[in-house]
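Open question from group meeting: does this chain pack into something compact, or does most of it stay loose? Before anyone orders reagents, we agreed to write out a predicted structure and look at it together. Recording both the input and the output here so the notebook holds the full record.
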Amino acid sequence: MPAGDTGRSARRPLERLLALPESDRIAALPVAFHQYEKALGALTGDAEALHDQLRAIVRDRHPELLRDPAFAQVVEAPYRRADMLSWLLRENVGRMEQLSSDMAHQAAETERLHGEISRLEAERQVMARELDHHRALADIGLMAAGVAHDFNNLLQVIAGHTAMVRGALSPEHPERESLDKAISATQRASEMSKRLLSWARHEGSDPQPVILGDTAAEVLDLVAASAPRKVLLTRALPAGLPPVLADPTDVRRIVLNLVVNAWQAIGTGPGEVRVSAGLSESGESSCWLEVQDDGCGMNDEARLRVFDPFFTTRAEGYGLGLPMVNRLVGKHGGKIEVWSQPGHGARFRVSLPLAPAS
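Structure tokens returned:
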């Protein structure tokens, strides 16, 4: 027990308690311990040490007091409770650290799973768009096959009647030249319809050397009479260009669709469609064909979607010509580039690989 006045103040209630007869001690316990704890509250020393001394005195000299549950709880419980709290704190700190680590791991795993779900959803959307694209192409192929079949039958009728009219004219008749061009155009159209049927049946064709400038000039000669009156068709097709390796009918279809698309972009007003060709200067073994118009042009959104099947910016358009051109260019290992701005027309350039030197 502590020395000095404070220690004596803390001991007095216990000494009075211990001086009582054993039969009276139990009844006096609450008051004695209340006074004892009150005295301890005024101490500046180590209260825990005082409790240790109190327990030693009671156990060694007056163990009979511990038979009273209330007394035993007052003497023993604070230390058992403190030990228990200390142990619980130590245990809980470890558990909290582990729980915190587990929660951090689970948060990281949840974040990873969210990222994986987002990635899979993006892939699903891409695959869905690809599937829609392929379905659209399949629909185009089926539709093209039916149209080509019927169109070819009509062409045969037109060609037959045109040949009959031509045969009825004298060799010097001025209209014989126009009829010759009509018959030639009908034959070319028949070849294109047959190629459409082959495409729908997935039949391949053997590419051959083709002069881009000569083929473009041939197409322009055939379509010149069909162009709108206010649209001027000009050409810059130099001679002597090396041949590209391609299917001639496919090249005609590419030129025809680009030219028709260009004059349709001009609308009802006056304008110019310029067709040019040249040899690539970027080190690539290719020739290019370019069709440029001074029509309405396209914004960025339309330019990015211009090769999507059925996409069109014109009310009377079908959105099939440019997707077909893109497919044919890709079929021959070439590339197609587009430059356009609203109000400044559009420029399409097709590049095709050169034929190997013989």
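Observations to bring back to the group:
DSSP finds nine helices and seven strands in the chain.
The chain has a mean pLDDT of 77.
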